[in-house]
Design a protein that fits this description.
Length: 369
């Protein structure tokens, strides 16, 4: 496959101008979108490797805005030609890993903890991390009438999206560092960890069934709009305030059989991130339109504005932070000490970055040989 070339200024303007018109619906389900809601393919477009479709998974979260904008805005489909995107959405990472293992998706945007779990449980055979996508965008939001300090979290009911997902691991690690005890499986202990679908967390907060939540955007800002207070921004716990929150993964089988398709998706992701960073207000509006298509309702300004500011979109998977997140899972009792050698394959990404005249990215010694 020939090396990718950067978009010309004229083509970039055309893509930006067309983006709001290109947004198309994708189902909001646990596993899949309806066939009649797949991204449209240009007439007479050529299929890559003769492949009819590529199945892509992601979350309806702002931390997955690269996928939201890239898929629904047509930027990824543009790179894939006649190979049609079949999108699927998920609430949290473990269910997306199940879909990847079952062949229901080929490529996915996902948090680091499920990627680590999926890799280790398959003895290094199920997936590779092939790119980064986002950093930040995770907060502990609490009811200020019940919780006024970090120490007040003890004895309270705090939601996370799903057992073993990235926010769940981060919260359990934070609890452990406070010296408190919680059973990682049941969530019971000095703090009650209540695994709750992000879609219903705001209602659970309003009803008083939870006292707060450690969640990604836009759920965190939705809770603030309901009267919650940000008690802790997870970025403040990390050096340089950077930590991987969203990676791109691919099944090893698909990577081996369809490398040109994988490269096309990565090219679309890199161009989408470049567009997002060059046009933050337009990108925010495009992501909000995509969320509206997913949920039937756009986010109000008081939710999306602070949420958007807390997220950094980047191609670097911040590999050096992955070992730390794995250590958190070990400390939380959700994972035995893993061997992460080989979890990354950044060769396709670096090929794309080189073609875009961008610096190559390091895998922190965790790359596939």
């Amino acid at each position: 496959m020939s090396a990718a070339r950067p978009l010309t200024a004229l083509r970039t303007i055309a893509v930006i101008a067309a983006l709001p018109l290109l947004l198309t619906a994708c189902g909001y389900g646990a596993d899949s979108a309806d066939d009649d809601k797949q991204t449209e393919v240009a007439a007479n477009a050529k299929k890559i490797d003769g492949l009819d479709e590529v199945k892509i998974g992601y979350f309806p979260n702002l931390t997955h805005a690269t996928a939201l904008v890239g898929v629904q805005g047509g930027l990824l489909q543009k790179e894939l030609g006649g190979t049609k995107i079949k999108p699927s959405t998920f609430n949290a990472g473990p269910s997306e890993i199940e879909a990847l293992n079952a062949g229901s998706i080929d490529i996915g945007w996902i948090g680091p903890s499920p990627a680590i779990n999926g890799y280790t449980k398959s003895n290094g055979k199920s997936l590779r991390i092939i790119s980064g996508s986002a950093s930040g965008g995770v907060k502990l939001v609490v009811n200020p009438d019940k919780i006024k300090s970090l120490d007040d979290v003890k004895g309270k009911k705090i939601a996370t999206p799903q057992l073993g997902n990235t926010q769940d691991v981060a919260f359990l690690n934070w609890i452990a560092e406070k010296g408190w005890k919680v059973d990682p499986q049941s969530g019971g202990g000095d703090v009650s960890v209540v695994r709750t679908d992000n879609k219903i967390t705001p209602d659970a907060y309003k009803s008083g069934s939870i006292d707060g939540a450690w969640v990604p955007e836009p759920t965190a800002s939705k809770l603030v709009a309901e009267g919650g207070k940000v008690l802790l921004d997870e970025a403040d716990l990390w050096p340089d305030k950077k930590f991987v929150i969203t990676n791109i993964i691919v099944s090893q089988k698909f990577l081996k059989e369809h490398p040109d398709v994988v490269e096309a998706v990565l090219r679309g992701s890199v161009k989408t991130n470049a567009w997002i960073n060059a046009n933050p207000e337009k990108a925010k509006a495009a992501a909000n339109e995509a969320l509206k298509e997913e949920s039937g309702k756009a986010l109000p300004a008081e939710v999306i504005d602070p949420a958007w500011k807390s997220i950094t979109f980047l191609d670097d998977p911040l590999a050096a932070t992955l070992n730390t997140e794995a250590e958190h899972a070990v400390k939380a009792g959700l994972l035995e000490k893993p061997d992460l050698k080989g979890i990354y394959d950044l060769a396709p990404l670096n090929k794309v970055l080189k073609a875009e005249v961008k610096d190559e990215i390091d895998d922190a010694g965790l790359g596939a040989e």
